[in-house]
Design goal:
With about 325 residues, the chain is mostly helical. It contains 11 helices and 4 strands.
């Protein structure tokens, strides 16, 4: 037996550590994604600080400014977008596999935006009728209202893009395919459902765990608020399950937050924003009003999101692009 004969099986064994039937193994993909994202984030923050200087630290409890919000969200989304694109090149997968598909992008985005405003308005309406939310009139008007309204709309479009693509884009797709591969290997009878199992395991990790965990640092966040964020994560990932696309969820997410923060002037996960149109305050028990968390901390968010899931189920038929189609 020659050295070449012994090296060949060794090379195949080494290759199997990194490469599976679905390309680069999911664990290595996730590790590489996190490494690239970290390096690019450090570089982007350093470059932004060098160009603009270190931003002043806002006073504790001060409302969030719209310009710093736009800058921060634009930077983080750009880094995430580049990282995901690089991974699509490394893995030789279509970038659209991560949820930002061209098909029906605009109709899905606009429909999601319409439903986002509608469902948040329904929640605010229930809070107002129950006496848990009191409006105090207009906070701003005229050109200031138009300017802040447009600026916050742009900011929350970036929020929707970043948060949806972070938790339900590359990470969701990659962990789902990894879990599916494990299911096929250890439980062959369940192979026909492997992709579905993988999808929902990944959804629990990122749409519940990471998505809700990311809101822990928000001032005024409560246990009920975290439950509602987790439920919202499952609502958004159900859109991905039905369509294979993130655009409906991005639109819904953007206008839900915009309607809270600008239109109705309520807190968004405990955060207050400058330049909101209406002034309002919660009244009564925090479990009903949401308290310092805002409407997302109210028990009434549960039926609102469950109704949203029903609407998704009725209005978004399963598409061929769905992950486990």
């Amino acid at each position: 037996m020659t050295d070449a004969d012994t090296a060949q099986p060794r090379d195949r064994g080494l290759r199997r550590i990194f490469i599976g039937s679905d390309g680069l193994r999911a664990g290595w993909s996730l590790l590489l994604f996190c490494l690239i994202l970290t390096v690019l984030t450090i570089g982007a923050v350093a470059a932004a600080t060098f160009i603009n200087g270190k931003p002043p630290h806002p006073p504790t409890g001060a409302p969030q400014g719209v310009i710093p919000s736009i800058k921060g969200e634009a930077l983080t989304f750009a880094v995430l977008l580049v990282t995901s694109w690089l991974m699509s090149r490394i893995e030789r997968r279509p970038f659209a596999a991560y949820g930002l598909r061209r098909e029906r992008a605009v109709p899905d985005l606009l429909t999601g935006m319409a439903w986002g405003i509608a469902m948040l308005s329904l929640l605010v309406g229930m809070l107002t009728l129950s006496g848990a939310l009191v409006f105090d009139g207009f906070a701003i008007g005229g050109s200031a209202a138009l300017g802040y309204g447009a600026a916050w709309f742009f900011a929350f479009c970036l929020v929707g893009l970043f948060e949806e693509f972070l938790t339900r884009g590359f990470l969701q797709y990659t962990l789902a395919r990894g879990v599916a591969g494990i299911v096929r290997a250890v439980a062959p009878p369940a192979s026909k459902n492997a992709r579905t199992i993988g999808f929902w395991v990944a959804a629990l990790v990122f749409s519940v765990g990471v998505f809700a965990g990311g809101h822990l640092a928000n001032k005024g966040e409560t246990a009920m608020g975290l439950v509602s964020v987790a439920l919202a994560g499952l609502t958004f990932v159900y859109v991905l399950y039905r369509t294979g696309s993130l655009w409906w969820a991005i639109g819904f997410h953007a206008t839900w937050d915009w309607a809270q923060s600008f239109l109705y002037g309520v807190r968004d996960s405990g955060l207050a924003m400058e330049g909101h149109l209406l002034a309002s305050h919660p009244a009564g028990a925090a479990l009903l009003s949401g308290g310092e968390t805002g409407p997302e901390g109210s028990i009434l968010v549960v039926p609102t999101l469950l109704l949203t899931v029903f609407i998704i189920h009725r209005t978004l038929p399963r598409r061929a692009a769905a992950f486990d189609a």
